[in-house]
TrEMBL record:
<protein>
    <recommendedName>
        <fullName>Integrase</fullName>
    </recommendedName>
</protein>
<dbReference type="InterPro" id="IPR036457">
    <property type="entry name" value="PPM-type-like_dom_sf"/>
</dbReference>
Length: 272
């Protein structure tokens, strides 16, 4: 398999809360759901630790005889045990993460997408874009007041804290959205599917910080993003994303919770 990947933290003084890894015939990408600094979480380890821990355990749990939701559920359960007695797993701010998996198995490419990262499958007839939009639907009304304020301002920071607090009550609830955290049952809510390998040319996995040139900024199409990854690599995609963000630091053109986000992109060429 030929895989290229790149990851960039939102800020150099804060840990990257994305996680990405590739093993034989599988790629795993997680985007930790970070909260504003000082927000209580009930966990002494932090979001970056959670994303790394869950990602590493998940990679080990993905074996041929196991479905992807089963592997994710087992990984969530195992990481619950890693928290230890020092963490309150019932706290609404307990760390969580999106999960995106692509696995080559038995002539098929299996996938799993949980929460708002993006998987793009390139087929001869065009791109198939898979993203879980339940978070976007749930958050649309909750974030209106925040999006009307300049990103980074004191007022925006206050509104962001309120938004995060409000969103917590919808997490892993029917009618809300689902994400990997402490409940293994969330794995069963993921979007899953399979496609014949013979019908696919390439695959891209993107955290929402890396997909925003298309789905938030509208500066690229999905075909253009795949072409950029194919010819220039994930590093170039992330560099162009950072350039666009710097051109709109206060989020006036593209409202968002923070000027920069952790960004991770994976390009997997399925044909040599």
């Amino acid at each position: 398999m030929r895989v290229r990947l790149a990851s960039s933290p939102a800020r150099p003084d804060r840990p990257n809360e994305d996680f990405v890894a590739a093993g034989p015939d599988v790629v795993v990408l997680l985007d930790g759901a970070g909260a504003p600094p000082g927000t209580p979480s009930g966990c002494v380890h932090g979001t970056a630790w959670y994303a790394r821990s869950l990602g590493g355990v998940l990679l080990a749990e993905i074996v041929p005889e196991r479905s992807l939701p089963e592997a994710l559920g087992r990984a969530i359960e195992r990481v619950n045990g890693l928290h230890g007695d020092s963490c309150d797993l019932g706290h609404p701010g307990t760390p969580s993460a999106t999960v995106t998996i692509a696995r080559r198995h038995g002539g098929m490419l299996d996938h799993l997408v949980l929460a708002d990262s993006v998987l793009v499958l390139n087929r001869p007839g065009g791109e198939l874009v898979i993203s879980d939009d339940r978070l976007a639907i749930t958050s649309k009304a909750l974030r209106k007041s925040m999006d009307a304020l300049p990103t980074g301002s004191t007022e925006h920071t206050t509104a962001l804290r309120s938004y995060v607090d409000s969103l917590a009550s919808y997490r892993n609830q029917p009618g809300g959205f689902w994400v990997a955290s402490t409940d293994p049952a969330a794995a069963g809510e993921a979007l899953t599917g399979s496609a014949p390998l013979q019908d696919l040319d390439e695959v891209a996995l993107l955290s929402d910080g890396a997909s925003r040139l298309v789905d938030r900024f509208g500066l690229l199409t999905w075909a253009g993003l795949l072409g950029l990854l194919r010819h220039n690599g994930p590093e170039t995609l992330l560099a162009q994303t950072r350039a666009a963000e710097r051109d709109d630091p206060e989020g006036r053109r593209w409202p968002r919770s923070k000027t920069h986000d952790d960004a991770t992109a994976v390009y997997w060429a399925l044909r040599d």
